[in-house]
Design brief:
Elements lengths: L2 E10 L15 E11 L8 E11 L8 E5 L2 H13 L2
């Protein structure tokens, strides 16, 4: 089965919370990757989302540069809207 990954940058001006991730994340720019796979058997190409991941910076003293956390894209959208609503 064919798959593809898209990547985009998301910027939060304020600290935010996402379901499934412990703690409040600091404001900043984050990379969000979405994995999709091709649906077989159709006469035109259609992809379905199989995972959405946000790359989180590791806290001070960590041994890696980033941590990948699987998230709900609707939860991310709500967090982006809430961030934009704060003035």
């Amino acid at each position: 089965m064919l798959s593809r990954t898209s990547s985009r940058k998301v910027t939060f001006s304020h600290p935010f919370v996402l379901t499934g991730i412990d703690g409040v994340q600091p404001a900043g720019t984050y990379t969000v990757e979405t994995d999709e796979e091709l649906v077989d058997g159709l006469s035109f190409p259609v992809y379905r989302r199989v995972a959405t991941v946000i790359l989180l910076p590791v806290r001070a003293g960590g041994t890696t540069l980033a941590q990948a956390a699987t998230i709900d894209p609707l939860d991310l959208e709500r967090a982006e809207q809430a961030d934009a609503a704060i003035r």
